[in-house]
Specification:
Layout: E1 4-9, H1 13-24, E2 29-36, E3 43-46, E4 49-52, E5 54-55, E6 66-69, H2 73-85, E7 89-92, E8 121-123, H3 127-143, E9 145-154, H4 161-175, H5 207-220, E10 226-233, E11 240-248, H6 255-264, E12 268-270, H7 282-285, E13 291-298, E14 305-312, H8 316-333
Bound molecules: NADP nicotinamide-adenine-dinucleotide phosphate.
Length: about 350
Amino acid sequence: MKEYRIAVVGMGAVGREMVATLEKSSLPVSELLPLVRRNEGEPISFRGRTYKTVKVNKGVFKGVDIALFSAGEQASKELAPMAIEEGAVVIDNSNAFRMDPEIPLVVPEVNPLDAKKHKGLIANPNCSTIQMVVALKPLHDLYKIKRIVVSTYQAVSGTGYKAIDELNEQVSAYIAQEEIKNSVYPHQIAFNALPHIDVFLDNGYSKEEMKMHHETRKIIGDESIQVSATAVRIPVVRCHSEAVNIETEKPMPSVEEIKKILAEAPGVTVIDDVANDAYPLAADCQYKYGVFVGRIRKDYSIPNGLNMWVVADNLLKGAALNAVQIAELLAEKNWVSKDTGC
Ligand SMILES: NC(=O)c1ccc[n+]([C@@H]2O[C@H](COP(=O)([O-])OP(=O)(O)OC[C@H]3O[C@@H](n4cnc5c(N)ncnc54)[C@H](OP(=O)(O)O)[C@@H]3O)[C@@H](O)[C@H]2O)c1
């Protein structure tokens, strides 16, 4: 069986989860190459061996089969073309290439065949979009979703390791009744909710909100779906939660039937028993694989409407796990080499 030489670019919140997820994956890995821009030589344990972090430089991707990028948009724009040139297939977690029509944007449970079309680069979608499309694709296939209204409750780890430190420091300062300092977010995040993720655009929405609109259409492959999002950062370390409302073209069956459909859908776990206070919770879903759905109920205000609550670990299904699943898909289907077209 072929073994793959895998590079992980960026050893931050997502990069470290990439290594942990690869460790558990069945992907045959001959060698791991952890790439950084500083702290060269830091030991990284992987499958019983210790690898040292290496600074990214020209030629470093020679011999690499798959490069998992999680070093931010700027680094991806600078380094992904070099990695491809040197022979690696790049799976990129940043926003740099997601909306390029030539580049597949892949969630393996939703649009696995798009991965086959890659020309050296596959983009990993935004974390809030991934968990939403995994939960909604089975319903779209059956009842055709016309419109999605979503409010997110997003964890600070979505902003990277510096944001986790900022939340912890603010909580300690609050308890000690000391001054609360902020640098990552424009306001205090501890004991607060910020309706502000990424930059604001001319239409009044944040970039994160518009990513949910554009990326959902591209992944599901239906430009007619309308997505209206409000993205909110909350003081939770891991797991994004989402209140999702959908309106479908065709009538939907009973809530019990919808629960069955979702329970059988790939990557979805239904936790929905309100009589026993059971619904997905960020605190329970962290470090878990998959997407968790609950509070499923009809929207009584319109004919074909449904509400649900969707939770997933943003560092796993929202980032590292989805990227490793793409790598597994490429290996399983023998799609690691580029599609040269016909
Ligand atoms: N966090 C999430 O839930 C999530 C979900 C989906 C996608 N993403 C995307 O994934 C990327 C990484 O996010 P993150 O949360 O892991 O951020 P992070 O915790 O800030 O980590 C980014 C890491 O990349 C390193 N880096 C920056 N430029 C580099 C370069 N040129 N070469 C090598 N390493 C470099 C940084 O090094 P320093 O330590 O020197 O700064 C840092 O360690 C971002 O594009 C983000 O948008 C994140």
